[in-house]
C-alpha cells in the first residue's frame, strides 16, 4: 500500500485506467471506458487539491494499480454537484451539516477484478480512514450495487435513516464508531 496526497498525480494515468476498469464493468451502468477514464483523470486534478485529500493505492509488482481509495474532508457549504443533492434529499440539510460536513468523505474505493476476494477492499478502506479525526468518515454508494452495499455493512458502516418520501438511488454510510 502506498499513501499519496497531491502527489497522486504522478500515478494519475495508472489510477484512471484502474478506475475505468472497475466502474465500467457490471453492476455499473454501461459507459464508454475511454470517456470514463478521461473524465476521472480530469476530476482527479481538482480532487487532489481538496483540503485533506489523500489516496491509498495497492500496486502490483509491475507498477499497475490493483486497488485504490481516495477521499478528503467535506467542507461547508455542502457540495451541489455529482450525487450530493441526493445526499441532502436523503438526510436533510440539518443532518448533512451535523453528520457529514467536517468529516472525511471516502470518495472512491475500487478493486480490479483480478484482485477481488483477497481482502484488498477492506485493507484499502482501513488504510484510508484509520487516521481520520474522531473516526468521523462517510461515503455514499449506489443502490444498484448490492455487493458494494453488503461490503460496507459487513465492515460495520452504518446507514443513517433516510427522510421519508422522495427516495434516492444513493445510500449514505457512516464509519463505525
Automatic annotation (TrEMBL):
Which InterPro entries is this protein grouped with? Acyl_CoA_acyltransferase, GNAT_dom
Q: Which residues form the N-acetyltransferase domain?
A: 6-177
Q: What is this protein called in UniProt?
A: GNAT family N-acetyltransferase
Taxonomy-wise, where does this protein's organism fall, top ranks first? Bacteria, Bacillati, Actinomycetota, Actinomycetes, Kitasatosporales
Amino acid at each position: 500500500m502506498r499513501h499519496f496526497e497531491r502527489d497522486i498525480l504522478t500515478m494519475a494515468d495508472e489510477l484512471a485506467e484502474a478506475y475505468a476498469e472497475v466502474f465500467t464493468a457490471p453492476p455499473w451502468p454501461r459507459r464508454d471506458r475511454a470517456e470514463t477514464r478521461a473524465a476521472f483523470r480530469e476530476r482527479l486534478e481538482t480532487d487532489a487539491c481538496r483540503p485533506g485529500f489523500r489516496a491509498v493505492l495497492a500496486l502490483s509488482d509491475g507498477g499497475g494499480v490493483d486497488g485504490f481509495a481516495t477521499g478528503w474532508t467535506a467542507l461547508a457549504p455542502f457540495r451541489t454537484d455529482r450525487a450530493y443533492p441526493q445526499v441532502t434529499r436523503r438526510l436533510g440539510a440539518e443532518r448533512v451539516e451535523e453528520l457529514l460536513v467536517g468529516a472525511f468523505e471516502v470518495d472512491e474505493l475500487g478493486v480490479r477484478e483480478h484482485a477481488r476476494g483477497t481482502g484488498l477492499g477492506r485493507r484499502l478502506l482501513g488504510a484510508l480512514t484509520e487516521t481520520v479525526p474522531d473516526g468521523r468518515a462517510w461515503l455514499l454508494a449506489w443502490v444498484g450495487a448490492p455487493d458494494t452495499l453488503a461490503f460496507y455493512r459487513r465492515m460495520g458502516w452504518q446507514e443513517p435513516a433516510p427522510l421519508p418520501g422522495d427516495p434516492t438511488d444513493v445510500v449514505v454510510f457512516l464509519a463505525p464508531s
